[in-house]
Amino acid sequence: MDRRDFIKNSSLGTGALLFTGAALSGFAHTVNDKVYRVGVIGFGDRGSGLYSLLSREFKDKFEVVAVCDPLDMRIDRARKMTDTHKVKIYRDHRELLDNKKIDVVIIATPLNTHYEIARHALEAGKHVMLEKAMAFTPDQALSLAGIAANHPRQTLQIGHQYRYSPLYYKVKNMIQQGYLGKVTQIDARWDRNSNWRRPVPDPKLERKINWRMYREYSGGLPAELLSHQIDFVNWAFGSLPSTIYGTGGIDRFKDGRETFDNVQVNFRYDDPGMIGNFGATCSNQHDGYSFRIKGSKGMVSLLVHDGIFFPEPETRKELEEVDGVSGATKLTWNHDKKGIKLVDSKLKDGSFYAFQDFYKAISENVLPDSNAFTGGTTAICVALANDSLYNGGIKPWKPEYNLIPGDHVGKTAGHHQGKTSKEG
User: Fold this and answer.
1) What transmembrane ranges does the database entry give (predicted)?
2) Residue 128 to residue 133: CA distance in whole angstroms
């Protein structure tokens, strides 16, 4: 497509990079009146939050009928939040999975348990929404992707919910259509100024509640935070890293934790020729969540729910010329007169859009966009990053890690006829 035609067709000529109907078509309502019965495994902050979202926004699509958690404090939370006449409470996930009335399970448990519980769920015939990261080790990721491929009638969605925002689909399209030019650098951060700890009512529960602090259970900052941005880069560019190198340490909080509170990881992508820099610290919140994708024609700066396109000087000149030629409304620049806003209205949380895609994938038997193949790839990236962080050295990407054959996820895996939900 000619660049001038692309600018006009992308709605820049109307004054801003706003979402068109086509851009949002992937989130169209699925014609299906079935209500799927859900069991939530893990009722901490994330599991209970997803329960609340389902109860508030998706009553016509999902009904939570069971909750499972081994901790008394979370069982008490479940009893307070749910109608115990309608929601059965379990302490063992295997007992929940034996309940034949349950169609779907949400797994929001510590990372080291993801593989075992997801495997049991798929083998029990359930559809699965599994929190990120998909698995703890490369071997687990490869195995779970194979299990998912062997259960083609079941859906396995991975909880990289931030990239489900329509904003991130828009940016993915901009990248794939060459709108940013040749991208060579990506700078991604997710910073905070806190110890990342949660209160513990009993010292005996320290490792079970603050599992993110301990390497036996957790992938630390790369898994819990940076995996979202890593996942988007792999997906949007259809690429895999060639090498991964990380450095970090426990630089502030000398409190017995084992996972690093300060990390920087470098990904080299030989194809397409690009460097991804992913960092997080627990000692400064100024940048917070930041995500900058830098190309020869412009840069996109992303937040979770907002984004700005900063064209390079020549690109900016072309945009203004096209706008003048078309006679359309003046471009909507950001307050500093240098950037163009990518959205002009408030978006919902990414989990909302993820549940829309999950329902569509189950109903139409297609791959969700965040699936065992994309999620498995990200899990392997995180595992290699942590291997480098803790053991040193540059970690190469091995051919046996390739879960995404060619340029389309899962097309040779035999899963859901090789289609994603956006293909139809």
Assistant:
1) none
2) 14
Cα end-to-end distance, the chain, whole Å: 24
Residue bearing tokens 């062997």: 150
Write the DSSP assignment of 15-40 as a string of letters.
Answer: TS-PPPHHHHGGGPPP-----EEEEE
pLDDT at 359 over 80: yes
Share of the chain above pLDDT 70, in %: 84
CB-CB contact of 372 with 145 (8 Å)? yes
| Helix residue ranges per DSSP H, 130-179 | 138-149, 166-176
The residue type found at 137 is T
- Residue 50 CA to residue 47 CA, distance in Å, equals 5
Q: Are 248 and 280 in contact (CB under 8 A)?
A: no
Would you tell me how many other CB atoms lie within 10 Å of the CB of residue 144?
26
With beta carbons less than 8 A apart as the criterion, state whether 110 and 211 touch: yes
CA 130 to chain centre: 11
Contact call for residues 282 and 262 (beta carbons, < 8 A): yes
How many Cα atoms occupy the beta-carbon half-sphere of 355 within 13 Å? 24
The 3-state DSSP class for residue 291 equals strand
Q: Is the pLDDT of residue 111 over 80?
A: yes
Give CA–CA dist 286/374, Å, rounded.
Answer: 31
Coil vs helix vs strand at 367: strand
Strand blocks (E) in 53-182? 62-68, 88-90, 104-107, 127-131, 156-159
For 32-48, write each residue's pLDDT tens digit: 789 999 999 999 999 99
pLDDT tens per residue, range 251-274 = 999 999 999 999 999 999 999 999
199 preceded by cis ω (within 30°)?
Answer: no
Which single residue is written with the structure tokens 């970690």? 395
> CA 424 to CA 418: how far, in whole Å?
11
**Whether pTM exceeds 0.70:** yes
Q: For the chain, which domains are there?
A: 3-24+164-348 (3.30.360.10), 27-160+353-372+387-418 (3.40.50.720)
pLDDT of residue 319: 77
Order of strands across the sheet that contains 127-131: 88-90, 62-68, 36-41, 104-107, 127-131, 156-159
| Coil, strand or helix at 193 | strand
Of all residues in the chain, the percent with pLDDT exceeding 90 is: 79
List pLDDT tens digits, range 59-98. Answer: 999 999 999 999 999 999 999 999 999 999 999 999 999 9
Name the 3-class secondary structure at 60. Answer: coil
Tokens linked to 167: 């904003």
